[in-house]
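<instruction>
Derive structure tokens from the sequence
<data>
Labelled lines for chain and fold:
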Amino acid sequence: KKGLTQMSIDDLMDWMDVHQYVEIVTDVKENNLAALQLILEKSEHNTDRFIPQVYSIKEYEKIQALGFKKIILTLYRTKAWNFQILRFAENHPELFAMTMRPERARQGGLGLELKQAGFFVYAHTINDQNEFEGIQKYGISGIYTDFLTNDEQTGLIHDLREQ
């Protein structure tokens, strides 16, 4: 795509050395465990700057066992019921965040229950400022977006953990 540069894992590590403030949220669609093992092998001093996404409750413990400290459980692939997600969250207070589609946050109150339990909750993919503002009442504190930025969108899109 115009303006984008494809990178190898080595290119990414070099780029991260220059951009010390950056953390990378992974989004590996296939062979997540193998990809994260490769990241560990290549990352050396940047390991703590990777935040893996996992796609199921079972996958979480495998990734945690690799030594990653910040892990996001993304729910779009899981068939787990809301009560199972809540029980998992209660048993894993170290969980960095959860992310879900806006529909799941709205239906059944999962987003609010997670937020009330102290978890940071993201929604994906939100590309409209009004939609982001509207979904916050369902427990959503941050979003994944294709193009909204702090500067362009009145500073609402940021990690609310700092507040």
Observations:
- Residues 152-163 have pLDDT under 50 and may be disordered.
- DSSP finds seven helices and seven strands in the chain.
- Residues 13 and 43 are 6 Å apart (CA to CA).
